[in-house]
Amino acid sequence: MRRFRLTPLRLAAAIVLGSLSFAGVGYAASLGLGTKKIFAWSQTLTKGSCNQTSTTADDTFVQQANPTSTTGSSATTLTITGGAMNQNIAFIRFNLSGCSLPTTAGADGSTLALFVTTSSMHTISLFPVTSSWSSSTLNWNGVSGLTIGSTATTTFTGSAGSHTVTVTSDVDAAIKAGTLWGWELKDAAGGPAATTAIASAENGTTANRPSLTLSYEK
Amino acid sequence: MKKLTRILGIATAITLFTVGVASAATLGLGSGKLAAGSAAVSGCTSSALTATRNVNNSNNVTQVNVLAVPQACAGETLALTLENSSHASLGSTSTTVGTCTGGCTVSLTGFGTVAAASLTAYAISLTQ
User: Fold this and answer.
1) In terms of Cα–Cα distance, which of A153, A181, A177 is closest to A57?
2) How many helices (H) and strands (E) does chain A have?
3) Coil, strand or helix at A176
4) CA angle, B78 as apex, B76 and B79 as ends, to 5°?
5) Is the ipTM of this complex over 0.90?
6) Cβ within 8 Å, pair A30-B10
7) A208, A216, A145, A207: which is closest to A180 by C-alpha?
8) Interface of A with B in 71-90 (CB under 8 A)
9) Inter-chain touch A34–B29, beta carbons under 8 Å
10) Which of A51, B44, B63, B68 could pair with B72 in a Cys bridge, judged by C-beta atoms 3.0 to 4.6 Å apart?
């Protein structure tokens, strides 16, 4: 076995080799940093409002007792009646096409204003409608063909006077879907039937007609 | 002894020179990559993507969706900051882009309670 001797030359070689390996590690580290690339961007939103009045509203009510009748073009009130038989169900929607919102836009806030002309004090539930309908053709028999959410968006007690309900999530979803098909208004109370009447878009008192506020981003 | 001192002196000079060059190279490469990083793009996309958000009936943002994220971005980290009109952060979150066919919609939550009306900008980044 030969004894290793540390000569000046070997010492110098060791120093040089050590330096080179140190530099190599440093270079590898810099390579590792270099592969972590980032792509960043920002998107600015434009805010606005596009409130709707009865001029862009479409509404009707359908009657279980008259399953093929339509009421949309003439009724000045929308009647909503619960109970097992002789139910009346109302529908309201607004045409948002004038707002020129892309499907990437959204609602920041939206409320629906309704005016109860005949009180029942029953709870009225609003269910979102997501398929097309027209007041000129919708009747009781046609309701089963509509796509209506199974969970009520909101409710209000049918006392006389004005009511404002928040419908932001439904309007936001409708903007993204391209069209707002509005709401089905139902009285789901059991027991004796009672009628709630709401001023329609054809009501003689303009201030009592349905309206919708909408603040949006796009 | 004189010879040893000379050899050690030369070795030290070589060492210092090599380390100096290596450090300069490292710095040079590093700064080059950093400079490139601010202008360069992640390998999966070269254009800004569109984000939308959902709201609830309390008018708060519930979810942000980044649309049409290329399939090539799968595995990358998508970070999102919701900003107000002063570009101050209202909340932030991140997620890993999953695998999907064609363009993915990447949905993000977990940024806290943010009023939709206060949200005026998204700052988004994709990191490999």
Assistant:
1) A181
2) 3, 12
3) helix
4) 140
5) no
6) no
7) A216
8) none
9) yes
10) B44
Beta bridge partners of B82: B91, B122
* Surface of A (140-169) touching B: CB under 8 A: 153-154, 166-169
CA distances in angstroms from B128 to A38, A111, A196, listed in the order given: 7, 43, 60
Determine which helix (DSSP H) or strand (DSSP E) holds B28, and give its type and residue range.
helix B2-39
The pLDDT tens digits for B95-128 are 999 988 778 899 999 999 999 999 999 999 999 8
Q: Do B117 and A47 touch (CB under 8 A)?
A: yes
Look at the alpha carbons of A129, A132, A137, A140 in this order and tell me if their dihedral is positive or negative: negative
Encoding tokens for residue A169? 């999530």
Minimum mean pLDDT range among A90-104, A156-170, A178-192, B29-43 = B29-43
Give the DSSP letter of residue A112: E
- Dig out the tokens for A156 from the structure: 């209000």
Between strands A106-118 and A161-166, the pairing is antiparallel
Q: How many CB atoms within 10 Å of residue A163?
A: 17
For residue A31 the two structure tokens come to: 């390579």
Which tokens is A91 given?
Answer: 């529908």
Closest CA to A69 of A60, A59, A77: A60
Q: Quick one: residue A149, left, alpha or beta (phi over 0 = left, psi -120 to 50 = alpha)?
A: beta
Evaluate whether B118 touches B91 at the Cβ level (below 8 Å).
Answer: no
Structure tokens at A112: 């629906």
**Bridge partners of A79?**
A197
Which tokens in the block code for residue B92?
Answer: 């932030």
pLDDT tens for residues B52-78?
A: 999 999 999 999 999 999 999 999 999
Interchain proximity A40–B125, CB inside 8 Å: yes
Alpha-helical (H) ranges within A39-153 are 140-143
Name the residue among A150, A145, A153 with its Cα closest to residue A172: A153
Angstrom distance (rounded) from CA B64 to CA B122: 9
